[in-house]
Amino acid sequence: MIAAIGFEQKTVAVLGLGRTGLSAIRALQKGGARIIAWDDNQANRKTARAAGIECQDLARRDWTDIAALILSPGIPHTHPEPHHVVKLARAVGVPIVGDTELFAQTINALPEKHRPLVIGITGTNGKSTTTALLTHILRDCGRDAHAGGNIGTACLDLPEPHAGMIYVLELSSYQLELTQNLRCNGAILLNLSPDHLDRHDGFEGYVAAKRRIFTGQRQEDVAIISMDDPHSQSLCMSARVLGKASVIPVSANSTLSQGISCAAGKLYTSCAIETKYLADIATVPALRGQHNGLNAAAAFAAARHVGIAGDSIAAAMKTFPGLAHRMEVVDTVQGAQFINDSKATNADAVRQALGAFDNIYWIAGGQAKADGIAGLEPYLGAVQKAFLIGEAQNAFARQLGGKLDTALCDTLEIAVTKAFAAALDTDAPDPVVLLSPACASFDQFKDFEARGEAFRRAVSDIAGAQKKKRPA
What we know:
CATH architecture of the largest domain: 3-Layer(aba) Sandwich
Strand order of the largest sheet: 6-7-5-8-9-10-11-12-13
CATH superfamily of the largest domain: Mur-like, catalytic domain
């Protein structure tokens, strides 16, 4: 765990007692701060009190002794409406920061010779895969690398910093908007498409939050930016103009004249006078799909920036096991392959999955986002039938009407059973039962991980039932 510095013997308020809030409390306590905490959820308060954390209703407390408010990233601080405690903090002039800012301040206070490297990764989609892939490459090549942030381990729960360490941080727009002083030695922007618009007062606010990943960079640092969507491309151009850090463009859509590209499963690096082959990822199951070409190009650029040789990076990529809940192969039963893509919570992520397989029996639905499944029409040719669940099932059925055969299933378990039966009934080769919801999970599940685990259980039940049917 990292000891968060700067608040020794001061009182700090923490709002939100989920994973991030509890992590911030532990780090602040280790750094010598006094903590008062609150969560609107009574169960979370009960858990915190059982751990010895003092809980006080921050709206009913005097704030004259509070040095800062640490806000969990899931709690709105500007839009659509600031939490009432956030309004109170602003009214009395108390700074509002997140756990990533505490991390940044602690790392920035270290002497340069003791400072670890920090690589930050953001984008609408692909963050988790790229974070996991880069960490795998670095560790496989003998580096002391640790992944955290928006994936797995909260950043303050990562091991204490030391020279030679590399932190690989997945950073959401929610985390970045509460961060002022983070310096990323390598900053990766994978893509930009509309998401979380209510939290950022529209797309411009969302982009502004994402671009904060480059704010603290210096000339010796590197900004790795996609050229595959117009918004990221624009940021790439402006980053070059600003000149703070070296810029490496990456693409999986075209061969760049400068930067790293992926074409037909092969990575290439280009400069003004030549293009060189780097690696072949076409045979790596965990990196299938065009979108993973972009993830691999970005990870390659970051690994090379910290001094890893190209042939070592290429070898490490071949052993990447993939990421749970992101185009994860769960099982193959009676010739039907089951793919868990529960992390695909928006249409852009689903587009990537639909483009990676043929003969798909698609399970979609849940708590829909603003654009639903708009824009997926060009990719529906690979889908044999859609099995719809959750709050969005009726709206999705209307959107798909006349374009695709659909079935309303209500629950994930029913959808898996029906999709498997339909897959067995096809004459087409290698059918795929794909959970790629294009929705948040909160109508029926705690989070996308819980949804993915439910899919795994349903597949396991099917596999067990099929095994029992076989003659002894």
